[in-house]
Amino acid sequence: MVRVNGKKFKIYELDNVNSFKSRLAATMDTLESFLYFNKDITDVELRDKKSKIIVNDLLAEIKASASRNSSIIQLINDIQARVGKTKYNKGKEIVKVWLAYNKPLRKDVKTQGKSPLDNIGDILQKNKLYITSRQIHTDWAQIKNIKKYLEGRIQSNKDSAKNTLDVFKEFDTIDESAASTDFEIEHVKFILTLDVKDLSLLEIFNTIKLNPSVPFSTTMDFYKILQDFIPPEEWSSSSEESLILQVAQKKFVSTSSNISNYESAIVKVDPESDYMTIDITINTSKDNVSRDEFMKRSLSVFKNLDAKVKQIDESEVIGVFYFPILRFNKYVFADLVVNDPIFSRLITIDDHDKATKMKPGIYIHFEHPSTGYITATLTEKIMVKGDQTMKKVDLDFFEPGGPFIRVKVSKANNAKSVGIFKEILGKLFMRYEEKKDGIIDYYKNYIPDFGNVAPPEEIEVQSIKASDVSPDLFVTLYTRNCKPARMPVIVSEEDAVQAQAEGKSVMKFPRDRPDDPDAFNFPMDGEGQNYYVCNNPEYPYTGIRINKLKNADVYPYVPCCFERDQRKKTKYLHYYEGKELIAVEKKQHNIIRTDKILKYNQFGTLPLNLENLFVIIDPDPKYEYVRKGVYKSKNSFINVVMEALNDETEILDIDGEEAREDTLMEERVAFAKKNIVPLCRQELYDKTVKEIIKMIEDPEVYFDPKLFVHLLEDRFDCNIFLFTRKILDGEMVLPRHLQAYYKNRTKKRCIYVYEHMGSESDHAKYPQCELIIKYNTKKSRDNVQFSFTYKEARNVRNVYNRLRKAYALNSTINETYMPIDPSIKIKSQWIDSYGKTRRLNVVYNDQNISLIITPIQPIKVRETTSTKIYLVDVTTAMKLIDTLNIQVTSQTVIGDVTKEINGTLGNVTVSIPVNNEGIIDGIPEKQHGLSFPEKDESSLEKYNKNKKMARYLVEYTIWVYSTYLNETGIVDVNDDNIAQFAKNFFIIKPDYDYGYIEKTLKKDSSILYGGKIVVHNEETIKRLIYVLRLSAQMNVDSVRRYYERIVIRNYYVDITDFDRYSHQVILYGEESVNKWILENNIVYTIHDEVQIGVNTPYFFKNTLVDNNVYLAQNTQTLEKASDIAVKWVREGYNANIYADDTTPVSFTLYAYINGGNISAGRQIKGKPFSNEVKIMGYKIDNNAEYTVLLPLS
User: Whole-model pTM?
Assistant: First the structure.
């Protein structure tokens, strides 16, 4: 009920704005087109009992004016003044109605003839309502027809309104709605409005600091990718209008880049309010995070903005609900949609979606003022016992084998709209029940079996296909975890209870979330749970196995069936009851068997596979390798190393945990020096020295052995080998690194360190390090060995070297050895982006000299970021070579000038850049050495820097000039005041360093000095003034108003303009991203067999050929193989499928059978060629094929 002009007007449930206006017009004896509302009417207002609607009937006003024969022009002007000419531009229609109802004018015409009409016609022509004054006579002749037509339309609307009202009343008589289940939301879309405004998308993009929960973002072809994360190819598309974040939606944040683990969050800038908004879609699957958690993750990358949520608006929901017990015939339903006045008012069905036998359901479009537009699919279903899709509903409403209707909502504004839709649809199904028999009887006259429905049969399903229910758990190759005969089946909770009552083994997996908030949590605790039973009588017991597949980080255990009861087994108790993985039991010499973090001075066993490893490498039965506990501390790594070397450190003489921690912190802070920190740059390749120092000095940061191992190796003159535990097993690990891990050869004592998180009961917030020791079980005193000689650690070193093994071209990367004479002072080192030292700057005979070297592990010396190369004369270089005992191998000669002298120092290749001098006699010449830049700054860096500065200078020139115009009141932009500006607002400083330029335009910017723009020379002024004149010619108003700008336009143009954050990369262009994905997805495997049928090149090494690594290329003919080899040597590329059939050169042919059967090479004569060519030949289906081996050096 609302009030219209002060009177009550009833609003029905099916009413909308159109029906309201039509019914209102009928009650006012007018037409909807003549109703004028003082404001637009909305559906929301119609359903507000407090609404007071004001409406004017313009038809009544026209009739009133006509009855008085008042001025027609005044009437039109009054209406248009009130309504608005653009809203009511119907002057000619007003004239016709006014004439039709003007009785006084009819009398005047009857008594005076045409003259009254002529007068009115002249007035209408003068006011441009008529083209000619004669038009009045045409309209006058039609007044009876006009009146009849108008009154006919009014009556027609009254009849229509009466029918509508009858329908509304009939719908309101449906008291009850069919019973339905709650709406289960599957997807929900909503919009966050943040209290951040006046920022462009690129400015927002600049602030983003990625993290594991949000590893990827893009806008305008710029991309940010978290270090070591490989995005799916589908993410390579960017947008000009929005910023896309890829947010982890699973509760457990996996390192996997599986696209199903992520959902997009779309960041926009609202064009009206300038507020930052985020469009978010939530998949409410049981394995996914809540809405609040997803929002938290989405906002986590904007910490620099301090973004807070200002408003949340739900924009779309998708989900499902059910009508229990109901049935429906889709043909009957479609008939109602077409012919029933209530159905047709609410529901439509597209012609191409009409009910057919091919489709199990019917797709409907529903629209109502209270719900907005909704689409849904209605499907009749039979309740199947054990149906996992019905797990969330209250099964008391559903009878096994009984019918129900499933309503899948594919589009709706919000959950509230669906609730109203559900209520109305329920009423429609009640009406369906009333009408269906009549419709069926009608159609039976033409189709005898129309409407016949077979009684539903009860269907019982004992098991469900596991991969359909839990695809994330039952991944491809799951049978490697659990053989098909031992696969458990998923059953409903009801069947699980029944099976348990029958004495069968039943297991819920994953386990429930522990009640103890501090308990150790497995990734999927309480999520995606199902009940499992085992139907194979040979394997009747449910249990768990260790997962060995790609999803082991999410599911460390997986369900399987066993011959014997598993409930007392260690793994079962560990997983379901939180007990120690290995039952605690006392052993001799106080060594306990546990996976918990050990207490101070306590001894415990290692994971079983590590125990086995040490038995293999040191099989003496009287010794056992165990771990020794230290005080729980973020500095436990330092502690265990110092305890291992207690004879020197005397750490054990310090009593008490607090005193020990103070000592460890002192030791730790001592590393925070610029000449020491570079030691761990290989591990922290993406951090600066300043950032590393900050990490070391912060006592809240865990001193991670994978990051700081080399610091301690240098400090305590030892080698340290790291072991860790992942969920269940232990393993040896390398320190963090990128590409290969380089290690300097040091034949020093060795220490073994074990790092782990303990068991569930430890509730550890950070890892703990413990010392691996050698324990003599046959002695009671002096029975512990804390460190090991280089020789004693031989087998551990062998395992480590196999783990570290990598190749540079065809050479194995061995431990580096580079002896430098103590008399040579190393001034600094230059470290590349992979954390490897590539240049040493030394001082020799009071001269700075640069040594360019192949990669080595960083050393204890200050790091330089300067690219400057110190050149030296040849004489001094040769003296340094003698002092260092460098074995000279060549000189790099370019254009008869020696650029560098090359040699080896230990096993490291060294190049000494020299001043351009003549060729040195007696040293072999080469055209390439270890390349180095000849300038301090690269040409590309200089170009980018200058290009960026040019943009800023242009922006400031226009801004300062516009400010000058505004402050002086100058209106005209002309050559005179531009010339005056050029004279007074520039200052020349040839060597001026602008430093960092902020994006905000301000008068204290470093570009300005004393209010004047600083430039390097007169030419720059001329060019800036030229750009200013050009800008003024193109858009003078923009130049005048430029003083109003706050930030530099186009501040972000290329990737060098953005702020740099650690652990993420910035790329530009879809092609760059695709290349990044491709390169990071490549796994370089060295094969010892021919890869049959492979066209792409691959690495090959087989000792039956030789000990080198080759790039192998398969091809079909000997001629093509020869051409590939020749082009590889002469032109430096692999011709692959583009090879030509040319006359073969001389080559060595190997007859290949398999990787263990390759015949000795046989020389085949051909055209002369300077390099050795190696080709393997073999037959496939009796056809000869070949693989050419391309050398990598």
Answer: 0.65
